[in-house]
What does this fold into?
Amino acid sequence: MNNMRILGIDYGQVRAGLAITDELKITAQGLKTINHNGNDKKLLSELDDVMKQYEIDTIVVGMPFHMNGDRSIRAEITEKFIHKLKCKYNKIKIVSQDERLTTVQAHKTMNDLDINKKKKKELVDTISAVYILESYMKI
It folds into this structure.
């Protein structure tokens, strides 16, 4: 049981970025971005594949707050998604993590790496998921 990993999810309206820790839970790396177009069933089905592939004991979902700390409308939608996760994966610890600025950080990282515009759209959610996971791991 010591090879468990943590899965990070940047849950967006159209896409969800996934990141995962190594088995020692020291580093986080981007896994993939899932285009679900608001269809949680499609997303949960794709998550099933990830859960089969890796042993995961914790799922961290980014919680979108406004910069002043108020809950956004997206936060309510995200909480509904977290509820679905808790029902489906009831033996796994599921937590939310403040994701303010993760998308900004992700864009800055991509600009620093000079990644082209088309690629940015594919990568932003995955990189954001890495930041969400890393900030959770620092707690």
User: Anything to note?
Assistant: The first strand starts at residue 5 and ends at 11. DSSP finds four helices and five strands in the chain.
